[in-house]
Structures are given as structure tokens and as C-alpha cells.
Amino acid sequence: MENNQLNSGSLNTLTVGDCLLTKAFKTSTDKIQLEFAEKVVAKDRPMSALTVLNASDSKFSSGARRGWATAEITDASDIFGVNFGDDGEWYMGEKSNGKSCEMMDLNILNPEFNGLNFRVRIVETTEPTESQQKYADSIGVDVVETQAKRAGKGGDHILHKGQHIFMNSYVDLLPVDTNPTHTFLVGDTTTQSTVKVNAGVKADEVEAMY
Predict the structure, then answer these.
(1) Counting beta carbons within 10 angstroms of the beta carbon of residue 122, is it exposed (0 to 12), middle (13 to 18) or buried (19 or more)?
(2) Which residue from 114, 118, 115, 117 is spatially nearest to 34, judged by alpha carbons?
(3) Per-residue pLDDT tens for 60-77?
(4) Would you say residue 97 lies in a domain?
(5) Contact present, 97 and 105 (Cβ < 8 Å)
(6) What torsion do the CA atoms of 17, 125, 161, 187 make, to the nearest 10 degrees?
(7) What pLDDT was estimated at residue 40?
(8) Among 57, 110, 152, 196, which is 20 to 30 Å from 87 by CA?
């Protein structure tokens, strides 16, 4: 078992540079889904005027970005030292999309495997992923309405060269002190600026809503 400790972190105390294995979810297959969370600062992305002009709007507050990975029950149990079998500490809860699901709280700070850290990598594109499209189709809505990037919760869509932006997340294994290489698209509404953002506002606060 690696040095992965249950309840060693929380979303409330998560800082930039750390990753949190928040939960495990049962799926319709014999695998489980693991949810990772990480606060991402887009240092190389131009500052958005929207973040500056909406600093006091709670809808623009930025939480941690999520990344998901499916896993074999036995492999995940061995790596994290957690019983993910049917007799594990599962409970019925609700996922962020409103669906009921059996889940398990983990809150493992900086999960690792063989000296490598699990990290969340963000890639923005102008095309939805297959899973994003399938989810939208399954609930009978346009993928743009559920998955495209918006200016704050319920805000207008942000475009890149006139096209909608979709956020994709991946979970990588990286050496200690190595940060993920994110890919961000510059929104049509953003401009370069040297003005400091008001306290509490980060460059990643305009994000995709799910």
C-alpha cells in the first residue's frame, strides 16, 4: 500500500499544487469511478475582463477542477488501501449531475502510486468529447447547453474565435513537484492586462459549468 491516507485533506483546505482524491462512485459495470480535484491557476492565460468586472459576484467564485478515472476494484483497493468491494463503506448519494449513485468519501490528499502523484490536467478544445456528447444526447439537450464554457454560473457562453469552448479533464501520474501542462483557449472577450485582480479572484474563475 502506498502512503495514501483517508481524510488527510478536504476541498475547503485544498491549495494550488495539491490534488485531492475526493470520492469513489459505483458504475453500471464491474469497475468504479474515482474523482480527483485540483485548483488550477492558468498563469499563462490572458486575464479576463469578466473576472475583474465581476469580482464581487459569487457566481464567479472558482472551485477545484475535477478529473475522473475508471478503475478495477482490486487494483484501486491495492493502491489506495481501501476496500472498494460491495462490503465497503458505500452510501447512496447524489452526483453533481443530480443522479443518485452509490459513493464513498475518500479525501486522500496528494494520492500517489510508486512515487508518482495523481494530478488533474485541463485541456480546452472547440469540440465536445464523445462522453460529453453522449451525456447531452442521453438527456435530450444540445451539448452546448450542458457542457460549453460560460462566464460564471448561468452566464453567457465564452467563445474562442467564434466557437464554443469545451473543457476536458484528464488524470495523469507525474513526478513529485511536476505540474500538469494545461491547455487553455483565449476567449473572445478576454484581453491582455497588467492590472491586478481584486482579492479573491483568480485567472481561472471563468469556467465550464456542468
Answers:
(1) buried
(2) 118
(3) 545 789 999 999 999 999
(4) yes
(5) no
(6) -20
(7) 86
(8) 110
152, part of any domain: yes
Total residues belonging to the chain? 210
The pTM for the full model equals 0.78
Strand order in the sheet with 116-125: 112-113, 116-125, 166-175
Asked whether 35 and 21 are in contact (CB, 8 A), the reply is yes
* Domain carrying residue 149: 19-175
**Does some domain include residue 104?**
yes
Between the CA of residue 159 and those of 77, 96, 200, what are the distances in Å?
42, 24, 25
Give me the phi and psi of 118, to 5 degrees please. -75, 130
SS3 58: helix
Smallest CA-to-CA distance from 166 within 181, 185, 153, 180 is with 185
Is it the case that residue 80 has pLDDT exceeding 90? yes
Nearest to 108 by CA among 118, 100, 93, 120: 118
Count CB-CB contacts under 10 A for residue 127: 13
Residue 195 lies in a domain: no
Total number of domains constituting the chain: 1
